[in-house]
Structure formats: C-alpha cells, structure tokens
Amino acid sequence: MESSSTLFKGIITHNGLWGAIISTIVITLLGFILYRTKVLNDNATISIQKIIINVLLPFLAFYSFLQNAQKENIKTFGVVFGLSAIYYVVLTTIALIWVKYAPKFVPKRVLINAENEHNKIQEKLPLEERKLWNTQSFLEHLQKKHLVNWLMCIYGSNILFATPIVMALYPTGPQLGSLSIWNILYYIGGFGFSFSLLSGVKFTKREFGLTMKKAITNPSFIVVIIAILLWASQFISGAGAKITNIKQNFDVKLIDADGNSFIKTITMTKSATFGPNFSRLYGYIDSDNVLKWFSYDNIKKVYVPYIGKPTGWFDWSTTMPYLYKPISLLTILVSPLIWIVIGTSLGKANIKQIFSNWQNWLFLVYKMILIPLFILCLVLPFVFIKAIDYKTGAILVMTGAVPPGTSIVIYSQHFKVHEKYTAQVSSLSTMLSFIFIPMWLAIGTVILNLV
Question: Is 69 exposed, middle or buried (0-12, 13-18, 19+ CB in 10 A)?
Fold first, then answer.
C-alpha cells in the first residue's frame, strides 16, 4: 500500500490530470470567446452537439472496451454496475418521495415571505397584468424546484467531464470501461426517466414504455451493450489470450550490444494468441527466468522480439490496428468539441447573476460536496473487501463532482421548468468543477487506498 502523502502528491501533480484540466479550461474559454464574438451561434452549437451525441460518443463507448478481457475485470464491471444500480435507484427513489411530500412540510413563515415577495412584485406591474397569490401554485412551483435540484444532483455529466480525466490518468486498464458501465443506467434515468418527470406527463405504463424506448434507442447505450458483449466474447475458447506449451525450433532475428543484427535458432516452449494482426506468438523462458515473446515479421520473413504480450481478439490496438486507429482518432475529438460547446453555453450566461444568487451556491454544496461524499461512502466497503480496486473507486467518487447532466438542463429549458435557475447552476458548476473534480479524485484515491 502506497503512503497517503505519496498518493496525494502523485494525483495532484500528475501531468495527465493537469494536462486534461488545463486543456479543458483553455478550450472552454475558446468556446466562450467564439460565441461572444459570434463566430459560433446557436445553430452551429446545436449541430456540434448532434455530432457529439449521435456519432462521437458511441465511438467513445466502443473504444472503452477495446482491450483484453481478464477475469478480474468481469468482477470489477459487475460490482460497478451493482453500485450504479444502488446509486441511481436509491437516490431517484428518495428524490421522488421527497418531491411528493416536501410541499406538505413547508413552514408557514416561508409561505408568508413568499406571498409578501409576490405582492411586492405585483405592485410594480400595471393593474391589468397583476395576479393574485395562489398558495397551491407556489407549492407546485417549489415542488418542481426540488425535482430539478434532485435530478441535476443525481445525473451528472459523467461522459463529458469524467471521461477526459480517466483517459489521461488510466488509458489502459478497467477504469475507462468501468466508467462506461457506471453510465449505463444514466442513459435510462438521465435521458428517459428525467424526460418524463420534467415534461409533467403522468407516469403510466405507456409512459414507462416510452421512457425505456427513449433510453435504449440512445446510440451510446446501444453501442455500450454491443461493446460489452464483444468484449465478453473473449472468454470463449479460442477468442481470448491463450498460452500453450510446445517445443519447436525457430530462427529469430536479434541485435547484439554493438547494434548488429544476427540470426539465431531458439527452441520455443510457449505458443500463444493473439499478436499483431491476429498472428500467433512464440516464446521461451531465458536464463533470467523471463518469458520473452516473438512474432513473425512478414517483411523480413523472420521472427523478431515482440515487446507486448498475448491478448484477446477484441484488443484491436494489437489485432486490428487499422481499425483501432480511426476509432481512437474519433474518440480524441470528443473532449475538445464538448469543451467548445460548454464554452458557448457559458457565453450565454449572465456571470454576475450566477455568482450573486445564494441559491446557486447552495446547490453547489449539494452537487459537489454531498453527492461525492455519498458515493465515497457507497464504494468504501467494496474497496475494503477488494471487490474493486481503489483507483476505480476513486474514479466513481470523482463522478459525483461533475456538473449536472446536459440532458437535464436541456429538458428544463425545453419544458420551462426553472430554466433560468438550471442554466445558472449548471454554468456555476461547470466553472468550479475544475477545482472540485481533481479535489475529489485526490480525496477518493487517498481515503480508499487506506481501507
């Protein structure tokens, strides 16, 4: 176990982490400037969003699983999915109960203050435009405020904000796949269920069907399921990395200490799948008890040292690099385009109002302090029993500190449900996420490493 100080220092000084954060700030600022200078307008932003959602994010979801399947990863992905179910189901259930019953417990002084404020505003209006105070309308208004607060807290923008950090810190390993697994139920809740709640329709059996249809027809959701199945297929005999014992002589090309190449016959004792372009690898254990692998070079027509190791067929970086390359390039486009779109959304905001409203800061406490703390408490026992590693646990904790999900804010704007408020808290959360995301990643890493 690494010391807490070493881990903390390692996280906060990690070049990949700060590279991602600084890149985020710079490109978000670029999007802000492009919108304020009218180089980008709302139509252009909408077009970019469509490309991201319908094209690039599905490629990113697929890319997350392009790796060798290992048994420990099955356990990790299973536990992460279970944790996500607990997180989304429990918090959404609490939210629905809270929203339903909260208006019944509103103190009388709140109603009196609200009525007085209402009357003050009405006095400034022409007589024909004035409206009488209606307690029931106020309670419904307050109920919707609680609803959007809960939805924005529960369904964070994991894909847009957490993904670049994970890719920078853990480009290989189960962390990126775990993030995709965590997001599966987000598609159902953040895109489908939230749509029904904010639209105000009665949640009937028919609405449930429409909600599920909206969620499962999301391109990223479909691709994640397909990618998981293809990734899992590597556990089928012959589809994954498999090593067998042999005894066969091969001519291999080696390089001596002076840089001169020479041919040597070596008795290979291991045969394995898969190497470059689905080729078979051969290896032997040298005098230092190190297993060395060789692959066949089709140009040189001889076996040469291979620096990698056997892998499954779905590890396309090895087996199909010609397909892996364009997918990885499209994946790289996701982050900068997302940051530009976020910058344009900040360009629309009134910065003075955002910082002056105390309710916006209160939301920040809910979203970026209490939610990460809840996830930390949720994952801690599973890290303790080693069901998942502390790095994966810290990534999940970090997702709690991301800004509200874009879909929730969009639905709020579309259905006129406290749209000004959601725009402001989303913008404030976005601006301060650059502090809270690395902070919670470091806190989660240090605490979970100690258990």
Answer: buried
Is 418 found in the same domain as 270?
no
Strands 242-255 and 281-285 turn out to be: unpaired
Residue with tokens 């490309």: 51
Enumerate residues 6+ apart whose C-beta is below 8 A from 160: 338, 342, 402, 406
**Residue given tokens 């957490």 in the structure block:** 162
CA–CA separation, 178 vs 194, rounded Å? 23
pLDDT tens profile 333-373? 877 887 787 788 778 777 888 888 888 999 999 999 999 99
Peptide bond into 382 cis (omega under 30): no
pLDDT tens readout for residues 197-236: 777 655 556 666 666 676 677 787 788 889 889 988 998 8
pTM: 0.73
Euclidean distance between CA atoms 353 and 364, whole angstroms: 15
| Residue 134 DSSP one-character state | -
Q: Among 294, 310, 326, which residue terminates a domain? A: 310
CA distance 419 to 406: 13
Q: What is the number of structural domains in the chain?
A: 2
CA dist., res. 64 & res. 331, Å (int): 10
CA distance 114 to 125: 17
